[in-house]
Design a protein that fits this description.
The complex is a heterodimer of chains A (about 260) and B (about 700).
Chain A: H1 4-17, H2 23-29, H3 34-46, E1 50-53, E2 56-59, H4 61-83, H5 88-98, H6 104-113, H7 131-139, H8 143-146, H9 157-164, E3 181-183, E4 192-198, H10 202-210, E5 218-224, E6 230-234, E7 237-241, H11 243-246, E8 249-254
Helix pairs in contact in A: 1-4, 2-3, 4-5
Chain B: E1 4-11, H1 17-25, E2 29-33, E3 40-48, E4 51-57, H2 69-81, E5 85-91, H3 95-107, E6 112-117, H4 119-124, E7 127-129, H5 131-138, E8 142-144, H6 153-166, H7 178-194, H8 202-211, H9 214-238, H10 270-299, H11 303-322, E9 323-325, H12 332-341, H13 346-378, H14 380-386, H15 391-429, H16 431-444, H17 453-458, H18 463-469, H19 476-488, H20 492-505, H21 508-532, E10 541-543, H22 552-586, H23 589-596, H24 598-604, H25 609-618, H26 625-633, H27 644-656, H28 661-671, H29 673-700
Parallel strand pairs in B: 1-4, 1-5, 5-6, 6-8
Antiparallel strand pairs in B: 2-3, 3-4, 7-9
Helix pairs in contact in B: 1-22, 3-11, 5-11, 7-8, 7-10, 8-10, 9-10, 13-15, 14-15, 15-22, 18-19, 18-28, 19-21, 19-28, 20-21, 20-27, 22-28, 23-25, 25-26, 27-29, 28-29
The chains are: A alpha+beta (about 260), B alpha/beta (about 700).
Chain lengths: ~260, ~700
């Protein structure tokens, strides 16, 4: 089975090159062995992303669309990371990883928050995030993902109210709250937020959601430790997270006062 | 009535699962590893109402999946060993998070009995849970317990026996949101149609497929081919007895792995069946991906995340229904203490004071009792030599066997027992988690996290428990780094050598310099392995439990069980090593072997041949290195056989050259054979390299 991420990378690379490539060129471009590429090309064909003609791989319309979308996400993320003060090479590397995890809705928000770069702006039509998509989101909201899935039962009412009192936190309700999206590590001690998205591998995401950090969950930052670990309260439990992990969890700040 | 019952304990970490295990099994327990894994396995037995109950304590986990060793171990146990009953221990004060795991156990259709533990603690936090309602809601027996005081355990066992013997008939259905449930149902139906469920419930498989759990996909593929093989065999077998009927795979009862009826199965060509099954598996997988993508598009999160959300939502709803929170009490004293214990300045001070005091106490007690025990047991020498047997046999008996046993005892009781006790107390009171939090950033540079500090410090006493203690690390990479560093900590045996040679004849400053160099070396090794070892250590993800007073009974029993583990690992090797050493000495082979290494020892390290002998055979019994040196050179005035340069080189090499055999055995237990060999060889190489360099530098400086 070929991982989706590799397919995306292949489309992105083909899209960048703007010309048909040989399997060897593609393999080099996405850092695969020439022995592995056949399987990838096969999977690309099966998904209707490329056609192979006389040994040359060419993107289909669907493949070009996917490649373009990933490239756009990459640019956006790279700009975002640069604006956080990361080094160019580091931002590029991280963006390569994150581009596959970035949801369309978050992409939209990132695009909105970042200043116009002047060149190579994210395409105005934003691919997958068409009006139809928004309509779909609006029609079928995951109720509990939006609400205060687990208010802090033992905590003062203010927290409960803050989360329930109309803070738009679901992927669908972005109005007004968009500017509050921030990394967990950026919260101040005692502040609360609602989990929006976790960037990171499947494994990490899995472990964190297993511990209760599902989207829409209210968390309180209890303290920051020496050198960056944080302690937070989630679903009545205290959880310690290292600095690197705390930087991968994005949430919306909930104002308690 | 079942004579023997297999019972598994499952639950989150820090919910009192081990306490229940200890209360139930008493001293009748063994701690070892899960086969092929570096996860600790605790097993014990007890008798209750005429039944023999075998209890397995599954690792503490937060979820069932195939992402971590612990989770794989737990999941495989439940599906492969098919325990008669699974006691799911949940913390009544953290019901919602604990039910997340319970819901998964129910998805797995395990025969669950719920132990609603620490109801007293929950009450003190202002929470009252209604066990009857919880039982009705989940469809499994629920027994409130206070494990630390042994309350409710007899009732728990009664309920477990009933489920083990009568089975669990759950009438209750727990369902998630309709859009998720609809997709689960579709996949489950496909799986049933294809007859792929094997020993797994179809609904469970459907959920795992939606979540994209790759372990399960592989397992299904394996099963698809196994079925085909079974049919190939049964097809041939059935040709002779074909008249017995045509019950094929499709008609087989679902939920049974390989019913006997397959042996009578009809004769479909195996390859065709296999192809069909593999094809339908591929189709189902594709459909699962499609359905997962639909979910992802609706919610903008991965399907796995959505399912976790759904489970938590359900757990939250159930919790709200069965738990009353009256007069929520904030735990002021906990907050205050945490404020100090995790403070960036006071936290370190408290930690340093506590650890220094404990280790000082351990080493003082260790020294005193080690000497006392050594003297006491040393009296046996007179008896052994009074025996009416040839002198050679007396030597073998005394040096080869008795001394080995004495060496073991004088390490275990004085140093390791108190250390394990301390570790257990730090762990059970919850303070270890605070240390881990404080030290996280510092240890992270070495690719470790804070938890490894304590075993690392223990290495100063003896490397064996330090290495075994590193099993608290979470993944193999961390365990590898931690265990490597632990073997580089100068243990008491090496300290004796350093002090006895360099300390006495060159002066304490040189000994201290050597120690500092070793510390630097540990730090650099950590940095370098962390930098160049593939993968990255995952950051800290750890629950910080509330403070508890340790329950003495379970703490002591746990300590005892760990000591037994140590004794099993180290004793045979210490004794075997002593025996080998004595035989080599008696046959004079030892000098001969020692001479083989002369080019390296004399030529490169510039040491006398005798020192080489000690280095090589010191591996067997490091604490004897000094004694061996004295015995072979015939003097304790080491300045007469080693000049200052040689002494420094000798001290340095002894400090880093390789862990002793007992430590090697512990390493094998912790990181596996291959990695043990790598660590050992790397350290020998490093010691030779650095020793040689030091030798030549000192020569150059005219020492």
């Amino acid at each position: 089975m070929v991982v989706q991420q590799i397919l995306e990378e292949a489309c992105e690379f083909l899209h960048e090159q703007r010309r048909p490539l040989s399997p060897e060129e593609l393999a080099r471009g996405i850092g695969l062995d020439s022995s592995e590429i056949a399987e990838v090309v096969e999977a690309l064909q099966r998904d209707g992303l490329v056609v192979v003609n006389g040994g040359e791989i060419n993107l289909t319309e669907k493949g070009a669309e996917l490649g373009g979308r990933i490239a756009r996400k990459h640019n956006l993320l790279e700009r975002f990371l640069l604006s956080l003060g990361l080094k160019k090479s580091q931002a590029h590397e991280e963006a390569c990883r994150l581009e596959h995890a970035l949801s369309d809705s978050l992409e939209r928000e990132l695009g909105r928050r970042l200043p116009d770069p002047g060149k190579s702006s994210p395409a105005p039509d934003l691919g997958g995030s068409s009006p139809a998509y928004e309509a779909k989101v609006g029609r079928e909201p995951l109720g509990h993902l939006n609400g205060p899935a687990s208010g802090e039962k033992g905590m003062p009412a203010a927290g409960e109210k803050g989360a329930a009192g109309g803070e738009k936190s679901g992927p669908g309700g972005e109005k007004g709250a968009a500017s509050d999206l921030l990394a967990l590590a950026e919260l101040q001690e005692g502040e609360q937020g609602v989990v929006e998205i976790i960037y990171g591998g499947q494994n990490l995401r899995r472990r964190l959601t297993d511990l209760g950090l599902t989207p829409g969950t209210l968390v309180t930052l209890l303290r920051k430790g020496p050198g960056g670990p944080v302690e937070l309260r989630v679903r009545e439990t205290s959880l310690a997270l290292g600095r690197g992990i705390a930087a991968k969890i994005f949430l919306r700040r909930v104002k308690t006062r | 009535m079942k004579k023997e019952i297999l019972l598994a304990l499952a639950g989150n970490a820090n919910v009192g699962k081990s306490v229940i295990f200890n209360q139930l099994t008493g001293l009748d327990q063994t701690i070892g590893n899960w086969p092929g894994k570096t996860v600790e396995r605790a097993e014990g037995t007890l008798r209750h109402r005429g039944r023999l109950i075998r209890i397995i304590d599954l690792p503490g986990i937060y979820s069932f999946s195939t992402y971590s060793q612990e989770e794989i171990v737990a999941q495989e146990f439940i599906f492969n060993e098919r325990p008669d009953v699974v006691i799911n221990v949940v913390d009544a004060s953290l019901l919602e998070r604990n039910l997340f795991l319970t819901l998964q156990l129910l998805e797995m259709e395990a025969p669950v009995v719920l132990a609603l533990n620490q109801v007293d603690y929950a009450r003190s936090k202002g929470m009252e849970t209604d066990p009857v309602r919880l039982s009705l809601r989940l469809g499994v027996p629920v027994v409130p317990t206070i494990a630390t005081r042994g309350q409710g355990l007899s009732e728990l066992l009664d309920a477990a026996i009933e489920v083990a013997e009568k089975g669990l008939r759950r009438q209750v259905e727990l369902t998630y949101g309709s859009e998720v449930e609809r997709r689960i149902a579709e996949l489950a139906a496909l799986i049933r149609q294809a007859g792929l469920e094997g020993s797994y419930p179809a609904r469970f498989l459907a959920i795992k497929l939606l979540e994209g759990d790759e372990g399960i996909v592989q397992e299904l593929a394996r099963q698809a081919s196994v079925f085909a093989d079974v049919r190939a065999v049964s097809g041939q077998a059935s040709r002779g007895i074909g008249a017995f009927g045509n019950q094929g795979l499709e008609e087989a009862v679902p939920g049974k792995a390989l019913p006997e009826s397959y042996v009578l199965g009809e004769a479909v060509p195996a390859s065709a069946a296999q192809e069909r099954r593999t094809a339908s598996l591929a189709e189902i997988e594709a459909r699962a991906r499609e359905l997962a993508r639909e979910l992802e598009e609706i919610h903008g999160h991965t399907a796995a995340t959505i399912l976790s959300s759904e489970r938590y939502e359900l757990a939250h709803r159930i919790t709200r229904e069965v738990q009353k929170v009256f007069a929520p009490r904030r735990q002021l004293w906990r907050e205050r203490f945490d404020q100090m214990a995790m403070h960036p300045v006071f936290g370190f001070l408290i930690m340093a004071a506590l650890l220094l005091a404990s280790f000082y106490a351990i080493f003082r007690f260790g020294n005193w009792s080690s000497e006392f025990l050594g003297d006491l047991l040393g009296q046996a020498e007179g008896w052994v030599y009074a025996l009416a047997v040839p002198d050679a046999i007396k030597d073998i008996l005394w040096h080869g066997i008795f001394e080995g046993i004495i060496a073991g005892i004088t390490i275990v009781l004085p140093y390791i027992l108190p250390f394990y006790l301390l570790l257990s107390i730090l762990e059970n009171t919850g303070y270890l988690a605070r240390i881990a939090f404080l030290m996280d950033a510092a240890m992270h540079q070495l690719g470790l996290h804070g938890k490894s500090l304590i075993p690392l410090l223990m290495g100063y006493g003896c490397n064996v428990p330090a290495v075994l203690g590193m099993r608290i690390m979470e993944n193999k990479r961390e365990m590898f780094i931690a265990a490597t560093l632990a073997t580089m900590v100068p243990c008491s045996a090496r300290t004796v050598v350093t002090l006895g040679t360099i300390g006495v004849f060159l002066g304490i400053p040189y000994a201290i310099a050597l120690y500092l160099f070793d510390l630097l070396l540990i730090y650099l090794t950590g940095l370098i392995t962390n930098r160049y070892l593939p993968g990255r250590s995952p950051g800290l993800i750890m629950e910080i439990p509330g403070y508890r007073l340790p329950a003495w009974g379970p703490t002591l029993r746990q300590t005892w069980a760990r000591i037994k583990d140590f004794v099993y690992v180290a004793f045979p090797i210490i004794i075997g090593g002593s025996l080998l050493l004595e035989l080599l000495r008696l046959t004079h082979l030892i000098e001969y072997i020692g001479r083989l290494f002369d080019p390296l020892v004399v030529g490169w390290l510039g040491l006398p041949s005798i020192a080489g002998l000690v280095l090589i055979f010191g591996i067997l019994r490091k604490e004897l290195a000094l004694i061996m040196l004295a015995a072979y050179s015939g003097t304790t005035n080491f300045a007469a056989i080693l000049n200052p340069r040689q002494m420094l080189v000798f001290g340095l090499v002894i400090m880093i050259y390789t862990p002793c055999v007992a430590t090697i055995a512990a390493l094998r237990r912790t990181v596996g054979t291959t990695r043990t060999i790598i660590i050992t060889l790397a350290e020998i190489g490093l010691a030779l390299l650095l020793g040689g360099i030091l030798n030549w530098i000192l020569l150059f400086l005219g020492w």
